[in-house]
């Protein structure tokens, strides 16, 4: 499979490209192109194919099964941490002095908690991202997953990832070009296109109003709207629940709370679930109005996906603290569960003024080739790599360094593929990152749902450090389990 791309000639690749483009446009495997003043198609609502790999990528079956197995453990961990106010306070107050965005989020959390939580129920749609680590001399089938990050807000590509696996099955069936190299049964199904909608439907049902609607909080001019629309369509067609789309500014302008029940209304429409597909980056809050919209939703009776507490748990600093000795055990009492979760951790180091942080700082100044430096940000394009870490550290004060963590770079195996972006093919040496979705619903007293929610594979050229599809670094792929 690793040399499949090189076994096909240009004519065969052109046939695959045309078939893939037609499939993508026919099935909604598309995104909006970047805005361009002279692009008439863009202004008229034109689309381009979502960036995809032309062939599925080999992935160790044992590593995949392990990632799926531990996802409910991570779902529960997020919830348990979100309930520990003292733990969040210790971390967020230290970050608040050096990170204005984290400070605004934490201040909002404190304000709402002081006022009193109107809705005890919470919905999590999480995604834990992994890269397989292949040690020297280790067999591919024995490679282990190492966690890159745990995403707790606005996890994307649940819909388009399911469609990409369908694309690969279609190309294999209709061309036969790689039928002797791919066992189609080795492409696992991902039900993320349905599971996210199902999670929203469960939360809507728990809210208890048949006339209320789910609200997806989106970014203005969203390019990835079609990944989101599939959730909307599944929610309506399979669960009979209507979804409305609003920006944070529109929530502020059009929203109001019932003074007695704190039910959230957008115009005359009651909102059962506030599902965020934005609100994770500083750019989502260009004015105070967006913060007003977020506060209004957080104060309301609507079930939040995620709550502000769940969002805070997704901070990189939390990930790093959990890796320290004894910290995970604060939330997980079962030794076997601790062992399963810790086995997925990679090396994580603070950059604060603790002895461990100062040691990591000095070590990075000496050699940063095998490290990545991460801020408390989502969305791709924010990390610092290799020699750039040393330059960045020299510009930061001791206090400013606390806004970052260091992580060991994970070295995955390199394979070959053909990437399809904006209708053009590119042969490439690539590496891949697995994301496993989780659906978690808690009513404030007990767990209602704790499920796996399907998976995503993102593939990128080996020359790219970052892995975000929406940020333009990677393509959507599917797994070939081996």
UniProtKB/TrEMBL annotation:
It catalyses: gamma-L-glutamyl-L-cysteine + glycine + ATP = glutathione + ADP + phosphate + H(+). Binds 1 Mg(2+) ion per subunit. SUPFAM superfamilies: Glutathione synthetase ATP-binding domain-like, PreATP-grasp domain. Keywords: ATP-binding, Glutathione biosynthesis, Ligase, Magnesium, Metal-binding, Nucleotide-binding. It comes from the Eukaryota. Its cofactor is Mg(2+). Pathway: Sulfur metabolism; glutathione biosynthesis; glutathione from L-cysteine and L-glutamate: step 2/2. The keyword ATP-binding applies. Its EC number is 6.3.2.3. InterPro entries: Glutathione_synthase (IPR005615), Glutathione_synthase_a-hlx (IPR014042), Glutathione_synthase_C_euk (IPR014709), Glutathione_synthase_N_euk (IPR014049), GSH-S_sub-bd_sf (IPR037013), GSH_synth_subst-bd (IPR004887), PreATP-grasp_dom_sf (IPR016185). PANTHER family: GLUTATHIONE SYNTHETASE (PTHR11130:SF0). This is Glutathione synthetase.
């Amino acid at each position: 499979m690793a040399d499949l791309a090189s076994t096909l000639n240009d004519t065969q690749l052109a046939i695959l490209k045309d078939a893939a483009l037609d499939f993508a446009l026919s099935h909604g495997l598309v995104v909006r192109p970047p805005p361009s003043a002279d692009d008439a198609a863009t202004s008229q609502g034109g689309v381009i194919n979502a960036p995809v790999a032309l062939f599925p990528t080999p992935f160790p079956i044992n590593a995949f099964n392990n990632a799926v197995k531990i996802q409910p453990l991570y779902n529960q961990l997020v919830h348990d941490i979100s309930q520990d106010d003292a733990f969040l306070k210790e971390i967020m107050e230290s970050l608040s002095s050096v990170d204005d965005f984290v400070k605004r989020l934490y201040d909002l959390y404190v304000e709402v908690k002081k006022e009193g939580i109107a809705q005890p129920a919470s919905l999590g749609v999480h995604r834990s991202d992994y890269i397989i680590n292949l040690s020297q001399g280790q067999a591919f089938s024995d490679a282990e997953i190492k966690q890159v990050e745990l995403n707790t807000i606005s996890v994307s590509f649940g819909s388009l990832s399911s469609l990409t696996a369908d694309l690969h099955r279609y190309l294999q069936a209709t061309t036969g070009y790689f039928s002797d190299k791919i066992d189609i049964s080795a492409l696992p199904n991902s039900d993320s296109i349905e599971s996210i909608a199902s999670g929203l439907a469960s939360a809507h049902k728990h809210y208890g109003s048949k006339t209320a609607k789910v609200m997806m909080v989106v970014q203005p001019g969203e390019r990835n709207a079609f990944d989101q629309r599939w959730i909307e369509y599944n929610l309506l067609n399979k669960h009979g629940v209507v979804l409305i789309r609003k920006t944070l500014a529109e929530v502020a302008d059009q929203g109001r709370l019932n003074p007695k029940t704190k039910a959230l209304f957008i115009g005359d429409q009651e909102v059962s679930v506030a599902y965020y597909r934005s609100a994770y980056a500083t750019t989502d809050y260009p004015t105070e109005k967006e913060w007003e919209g977020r506060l209004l939703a957080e104060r309301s009776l609507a079930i939040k996906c995620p709550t502000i507490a769940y969002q805070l748990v997704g901070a990189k600093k939390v990930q790093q603290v959990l890796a320290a000795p004894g910290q995970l055990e604060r939330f997980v009492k079962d030794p076997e569960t601790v062992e399963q979760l810790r086995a997925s951790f990679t090396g994580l180091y603070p950059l604060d003024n603790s002895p461990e942080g100062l040691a990591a700082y000095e070590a990075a100044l000496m050699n940063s080739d095998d490290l990545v430096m991460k801020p408390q940000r989502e969305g791709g394009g924010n990390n610092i790599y290799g020699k750039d870490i040393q330059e960045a550290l020299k510009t930061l004060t001791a206090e400013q360094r606390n806004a970052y963590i260091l992580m060991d770079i994970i070295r995955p195996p390199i394979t070959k593929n053909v990437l399809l972006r904006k209708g053009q093919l590119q042969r490439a040496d690539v590496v891949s990152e697995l994301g496993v979705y989780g659906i978690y619903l808690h009513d404030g007293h007990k767990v209602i749902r704790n499920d796996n929610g399907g998976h995503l594979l993102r593939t990128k050229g080996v020359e790219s450090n970052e892995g975000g599809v929406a940020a333009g670094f990677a393509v959507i792929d599917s797994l070939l389990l081996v």
